[in-house]
Write a structure and sequence with these properties.
The structure is a homodimer.
Chain A (H helix, E strand, L loop, with lengths): L3 E8 L10 H16 L6 E5 L3 H5 L4 H8 L6 E6 L4 H14 L6 E7 L6 H8 L15 H16 L7 H11 L13 H6 L2 E3 L2 E2 L9 E9 L9 E10 L14 H14 L8 E3 L5 H10 L8 H6 L16 H5 L6 H14 L12 E8 L4 E9 L1
Parallel strand pairs in A: 2-3, 2-4, 9-10
Antiparallel strand pairs in A: 1-7, 4-7, 5-6, 8-11, 10-11
């Protein structure tokens, strides 16, 4: 593969954008990324989105966004891998540029979810799980994660409050991210007392949905004079069984382990070289499992990093530095692109009070389903 | 790009497969393609599908199919571009192999549509059009095509019966394709008398939906000893406005023209070099427009090729040699991969009574929406 760089980034605030359409949100992020890159168009458009068909009655979304943003007759395609759709679109754009086939790729993650009822959104999100063997049995997506969290607490002896630092860190960091959905610090007491959703997952274990879009422009690194140069030095994707009950070990994110190992190898780095890690904290349990699968903690010891103050921007393993899914928000198909944009912001030193000092290597990991599709990207400032 | 070859193909019969699941159909085609290639696995899986979320309550489909077919933790992603999803997945897999990132790519187009009511399927198919500015006004997808056909007939003075050869040829060719949905010859009289759907489009102008899957295994051409070697020598994708009313000329498939020209250039061929052309005859009018946009007929003269007997397997421009969308069937997200599989069959000389004598260069063109996303692929026997 030819080396590829991220020349521009853009994003919208995540919110309940009832007055704005899907194309409008995607267009704002896409045009912001082009503007940031100093470009007027792109050779190809790659859209990450999970639910536009079910929620917005709109498929063929990539052609629509190419049309709306004035990209003309450019090649355009939508990529779907449930909540990992954003990173999957990024990887598709990356390969198109790395192959030499496209001179540039604009990648946009977009989702608009808040106009439907919670019941409809819950049903739509459940399509990330196995329709025939999980959802048919009556379980929701949060229910599946609750079973995993309960098993994890039983297996390793953690209390619910031990997960509080993940959510507290995310909310604290989001205070300094104007694009975040939630701007509200939380305490351990609030974390423990919030409304129960599916035992043991309560409201403050769970990330909020939202409407939003985030984008990046990929170009061959060789042609680039912009300083600092942010390159994609590691990229990998792996899958696991769709249904959790088919896994030998329900507490191991095998696809996170495999995609992280492949990305480390490609980038020539080890976990201790990662300065900032935007992980997929859809639920607090997922933060623990991701940290473990990616080599930042021993099996069963993920919560220890939070309790030891290692996950904040001054810690050894800074995560969710812009609020994570928990507080920046989780517009599902857009999330992976928010993570990429946020890692770029860290490597550029644009993160004000949550800036990781001297961040040079950042990692983003995006998860689709209950760990079924996991993509890991490593970016470097050069 | 490194040169890429198609090493194996597989497909299921298109039918109302009420007793079979989405994963089962995809698995049959995927494993058939691997078997045909003499391989046991693939480095990546690319799935083309439009409606699994809306119709089958299943997203994250690529991870599911990787799991079901025993591909292990391989990278897997779904690509959506409405009815062009199949070819869009093929192009994504092509770029992954051409970039050198993946040693092989298994591409599967799959759709399962027939268990829902016609009303639900019609609503789902309408998501290929512009939800806010076309569908919101109350028009269906066939309605949009009917407006185009009526305008075309008015503009160029054709009668409805002049389109009969497109459907008659498709049905005649499907008689020799065991995977086709319809095995029934039709006459001009039947064509003229069939039930009206949306004037002037009647039942025999329109392709039937269906359940089915088709697959191909892509590998670097350099490593290949199989004879004949089928290479992908041209690949291009282009978009147009999503809504037809935004186009300066509603009768010109600009994206077909652009993607065909780019594919011709890449392959170093001209229209007259194409021995077989699997085009996207979702409605008979689309056959005329595609032939014109790709340089096989002058503007407004597409029907002439049918009336002059030029489109059958012995003609100058053989199209829909395995039945086309009209008679092989149109399981929307799978169709693009059926076209690829059928061109490979022609180049291998496996098409019995509809074999195009000495076919060496074949073209497949897949359309998403009312011409909004169009991909053109040119394959060569070497």
């Amino acid at each position: 593969m030819h080396p590829v760089a991220i020349l521009g980034i853009g994003q919208t605030k995540i919110d309940e954008h009832w007055q704005r359409s899907l194309r409008d949100l995607a267009g704002e992020a896409a045009l912001a990324a082009l503007h940031d890159a100093g470009r007027e168009s792109a050779a190809g458009l790659f859209v990450g989105n999970m639910l536009s068909g079910m929620i917005d009655n709109q498929n063929n979304l990539a052609a629509l966004i190419a049309d709306w943003t004035g990209l003309g007759s450019t090649e355009a395609v939508k990529v779907e891998a449930a909540c990992a759709s954003g990173a999957a679109a990024f990887r598709a754009g990356l390969m198109a540029v790395a192959s030499g086939e496209l001179a540039s790729a604009l990648v946009v993650g977009v989702e608009k979810m808040t106009e439907r009822s919670p019941h409809e959104v819950t049903a739509a999100l459940a399509t990330a799980a196995d329709a025939d063997y999980e959802v048919e049995a009556g379980i929701s997506f949060v229910g599946l994660n609750a079973l995993v969290m309960r098993r994890y607490m039983h297996e390793y002896g953690w209390q619910h409050a031990d997960f509080a630092p993940f959510s507290i860190n995310a909310h604290a960091n989001a205070m300094y991210n104007p694009f975040a959905r939630l701007h509200q610090r939380i305490t351990v007491e609030q974390f423990e007392k919030s409304a129960m959703i599916a035992t043991p997952i309560n409201l403050l274990d769970a990330s909020p949905i939202g409407d939003g879009a985030a984008a990046a422009l990929l170009v061959p690194a060789g042609t680039l004079s912009r300083v600092p140069r942010i390159t994609v030095s590691g990229s990998a994707s792996a899958t696991d069984t769709l249904a959790i009950h088919d896994r030998p070990d329900a507490l191991l994110l095998t696809a996170a382990y495999k995609s992280a190992q492949a990305a480390y190898k490609m980038a020539g780095v080890r976990p201790e070289d990662i300065d900032v890690f935007e992980l997929h904290d859809a639920f607090s349990i997922m933060s623990a499992l991701s940290l473990e699968a990616c080599g930042f903690a021993e099996r069963g010891q993920g919560p220890r990093l939070g309790l030891d103050n290692e996950i904040n921007p001054q810690g050894r393993v800074p995560i969710c530095t812009r609020g994570g899914l928990k507080a920046r928000g989780h517009p599902v198909g857009a999330t992976g692109m928010y993570q990429i944009v946020e890692v770029v912001q860290q490597l550029r030193g644009e993160c004000s009070k949550t800036q990781v000092d001297g961040a040079r290597i950042g990692m983003a990991q995006n998860i689709g389903g209950s760990g079924a599709t996991i993509l890991t990207h490593i970016l470097k400032r050069e």
